[in-house]
Every structure is written in C-alpha cells, then in structure tokens.
Amino acid sequence: MKLGNINHIFFDLDHTLWDFDRNSALAFERVFKFRNIPLEINDFLEIYMPVNFKYWERYRNDQVTKEALRYGRLKDSFDLLKFEADKDLINDIAIDYIEYLPDHNHLLDGSKEVLDYLHKSYELHIITNGFEEVQHKKLNNSGISKYFTTITTSEEAGVKKPNKLIFEAALKKSSATPESSIMIGDNFEADCTGAQNCGIKPIFFDYYGNKENIDVMHIKTLNELKTYL
C-alpha cells in the first residue's frame, strides 16, 4: 500500500542506514591493537553491546551525560570481564574509539539502493541522537550525505528522541509539516513513539527482529520501504 501526500522522509542513522554494529567492532579492533589490549574482540563485544545499549537508554532519558556514557560503558564492560584498566586508559580508549569509528563506513544492506530510489521523489532528512561531531563524519565518509537536505542532531536541538521537541526542530529546519512526513528508525520508543507524539507517521525498522506484534507500519529490510513509498 503506497502512502499518499508524503513529501518528507526522516531517517534515523545508526542501525537504520549506517551499520553501527559492524563499524563499531572494526573501530574497537583497531583501538585494542593500538593500545595492546589483550582481550578477544568477540568476548568484549558480547559484554559491551548490552552495556552500551543500557547506557544509550539512560542517555536518551537524560540520566547520564555524554561524558559519563563514553566512560561508563567501557568501565562497566572491563569490570565484567575482570580486565584492570585505570581511568586514564579508559579515557584514552574512549577518545580513540570516537576518533576511529567514522573511519569505518559499512552501510546496511539496501541503504544506497533505497536512498537512490526515494531521493527521486522525496526530500530526505536525518534525525539522530548520535553525537554531533561523529554523525556528520559518518554521513560524509560513507558517501550518503548528498541524499539529505537537513540533518538534525540531539546536541543541536538540545533534546533527544523521543522528546517531540527534536522532531519539531527537524520539521522547522526542513519546512515540513507532520502530515507530509514519515519517520523511519530502528528504536521503537525513540523513533516511532517520538514521531507519533509529534503527529508524524512512523515506519519501524525491525532490524533485529525483536518485535512481532506492533501497531505501526514496520519493515525487516530497507527494500521493503518500496512497498509504502
């Protein structure tokens, strides 16, 4: 079923277009090699990924700062792995990781194909909770910045998804209306609930296949967007 009266499409970036899991693993491999960290990357990631997820959830809810997120997710992961690292080493790793992350720019399957397809008929935009200094590098280095008319980050807006103020800021920046817009993202609360609270129709990208019964449009691959748009 094609959706009518849509002129603007807002995308999340990480886990929606940009392959965060793969790129993050490559960045940590490089950091660990540079810092001579004697941990198997897969063992580390098995612990780190759920810890990181919880820290981002707390960050969205304004329970931790950006600095506390960057430090705490590493400190907690190392503690669980019983790897001793002092504060200076953890801070160095955190800085290295953020520096190296946008150097790896694998996209999720179908990203460029879908962007090419949608770009012909719609204005495309980004709304992201990711850090300002990193997200623009990801878009530029992966070669997809050319598709987007506007990019709205949570640091620029002063609030994070799902706060409706970031969606209102993105609408104003793009001269779009809620009725003429769609939001596509992988985080149900941040992207879908947040968009709905602002009057924007959401499409949930169920990338991890975690949700079966949901009451919004949803896709499991990016190419499925052609069903709706």
UniProtKB/TrEMBL annotation:
Q: Which InterPro entries match?
A: HAD-like_sf, HAD-SF_hydro_IA, HAD-SF_hydro_IA_YjjG/PynA, HAD_sf, PGP-like_dom2, Pyrimidine_5'-ntase_YjjG
For this protein, the record's Gene3D superfamilies field holds: HAD superfamily/HAD-like, Putative phosphatase, domain 2
Q: What is this protein called?
A: Haloacid dehalogenase
Entry superkingdom? Bacteria
Check the record and name the SUPFAM superfamilies matching this protein.
HAD-like (SSF56784)
Per UniProt, what is one GO molecular function of this protein? 5'-nucleotidase activity
